[in-house]
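hi!! sorry for the late reply, been swamped w classes. u asked for the two structures so here they r. pasted raw, havent cleaned anything up. first the sequence of the first protein and right below it the tokens
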Amino acid sequence: MGIIITSGHIFTLKFSPLKKYFLLLLIITVSFIARAQNNIAPEIKISSKIEKIEGVKYYIHTVEAGQTLYSIAKAYAVNSKDLIFENPELADGINPGQLIKILYKETKKQASPKSEVSSASPFIYHTVEKQQTLYAISKLYGITVDELNKANPELSEGLKIGQQLKIPQSNTKVDLPSESKAVESDKPFIAEIKKAIIQPQSKVLCISLLVPFNTDEIDSVKFAKNTRTAIPSKSYAAIEFYEGILLAIDSLKQLGLNLKLQVFDAPNDSAKIAEVLKHNSIKNSDLIIGPFHNVPAAMVAAYCKKNQILNCIPYAQQNKLLLGNSYAIKVSASSGTQVETIADFIGKHYKKENIVLLHNGLLKEKSSVEVFKEKAKPLLGKDSLVEVIFKTSGAKGLQAKLSTTGNNIIFIPSNDQAFVTSLVNSLRIIKKDYQITLFGMESWISFDNLDINTIQDLQLHIPSSGYVNFSAATCLSMMKKYRSKFKTDPSKYAFQGYDCGLYFLQELMKAPKSFSDQLIAHPYNGLQNNFKFVETAVESGLENRSVFILQYKDFTLSPVK
């Protein structure tokens, strides 16, 4: 039966499709949490020993038995990463008696300057901070972006740091929470969801989660000793995605979500997926989320089509599994969609520049090359796109096509790390003679041999299905809850699990007549993934076509506006 979660209780467990090791997996997770909680007690006292080191004040904390890096960081209101930054030796662990320096913070008692309340005004006022967006501010106060725009007509000229915005009080409490309370509170976010819900959800939703825990590969000997390495590293993506889903369920329970959740181990193994699909209980699902890998995803999508079950596919990139299957919903944009987004971006922002499509003439590049040409040529104009095949032209042939007076916009639609690395190094050498803005593919994010200074000099842009604004209030709120529940920071898999759970489950709570039409009609901005679904063909599934264009700048990746 798997794991069952109802609105009244988080867990009512009946195991079987997840083998005994998953039960152990949950036990060890709970064990880790319980142990961490035990280690927090007794309460950690802030050290009275303060020293100035190289002109900077630090607490000097002596580690006591039972204290963990997390508990110490929490006691001093800092991040664990900050502690390791100041004390690199902590990366190898901590020991009783060890001295740790922690950045000293002056205590200030003053009112928050970020918001002001006036009882005589229908508005409260918010001062815009760095990296805040209209969307983030609207969520902070539980209002919509449209309400924010109506109250502040000057926003038509853009949002500026330091700008004071009027927040309608009809939708907010007069006792506006302080900054810290705003981070902790779910209320703005819950208020937004409440507005979206058409009717209370009375039906018990049956959701099946198929993720690759790879339980057969857990080392039982190490597991018995409570050793974390007992779990294969490839299982962590599934565990973290699952944890993100659980956190979303926690939030939606406050809105009356009544849910039966079944969790199945779905590794990248066709035989094991076939076994999972034999379970009778899975046929009763209102929605199946998963699996992760392409072949299992195709098998489950076909099963869902046959049994008329909605299927959310989190990671597979192939669009062909959507063809003729109106029950399939793909969360990640395909490579073709990402290339179209790049072409559209270049067409809008660099139309008058020298546009170069650079590739190696390989069959595996052909699809992306053709998609780019088909999309870009109408935007750029006839004969405005220069195509260079590097294996025949070489560096000299490329230089012959570059402008010496204007900007050269070069797009390389390749996922071949060796080829990309060689090309980027070639561009680095000639960069001194040309102005170059480089566009690549999402896979480049994982190419750790690309020199960061070089790709910054080349103004590298890449498409991506997700981006997390870690300074957003809603993101901080989620991270705080995640740390509290799972004793670690959320990964990209946890964020995606959270976004998928929150979006798809709240849409199901509306009891739709047509779930696909509803998804198309209700785009949504999550913490990492935005959802903008489009039907790929008649009687076919939906693809999320929301793509970020990110740029390497100041040694980090951030969205280009």
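now the second protein. again sequence first, tokens right under
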Amino acid sequence: MIKELISSFVRKLVDKPDAVVVTEIAADGKYLIQVCVAPHDLGKVIGSEGRTFRALRAVVGLLSKHSHTDVVVDIAE
């Protein structure tokens, strides 16, 4: 559910939604969600002073607390 939410959110931000790849890696009960976008869309996902990405992390943090899972979101280069 969180992976799909992140994918939907990021696809609406970028110019090339087809280039968005969201992968989920699970290990020891924790989840790492990596977001990969086209290089020229990276700034749109990060936002001014990182505000957009911090907001996304905040939403994911609330959802992961609610579902009692540990989720980390990162941008893959």
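hope this helps!! also noticed smth abt the second:
The CA atoms of residues 70 and 76 lie 19 Å apart.
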